[in-house]
Write a structure and sequence with these properties.
Blueprint lengths: L1 E5 L7 H9 L6 E6 L6 E8 L3 H11 L3 E2 L2 E2 L1 E4 L15
Antiparallel strand pairs: 1-3, 1-6, 2-3, 4-5
Amino acid sequence: MRLYAGNLSYKMTEAELQQAFAVFGKVDSVTIITDKRTGNSKGFGFVEMPNKAEAEKAIRELNGKDVGGRAIVVNEARPRTQKDGSGPGNF
C-alpha cells in the first residue's frame, strides 16, 4: 500500500521516515520528494508498505502525531496522474 506523508520537517531523512513507519510493519521503500534545482526537501514523501493492515495501522497511529517536531499528515496516496492531465483521477 502506498502512503503519503506530508508536513514533514525539511531536515527529515528517508532513514528517519522509514524508522517512524517500521514500528508498524515492513517498509518496502521510502522517498522524500526534493526540489530538482536545490535538492532541498519539499516537506512530503511516500512510503510503500506491503501489508495493508500494517499500513492502515500506520495511518491511524501517525496521522497528526509529532514526528521530527511537526504534526505529520499520513493517508493513502492517490493514484499518480500524468503531467498533461490525461491520467487516472482527472476528469
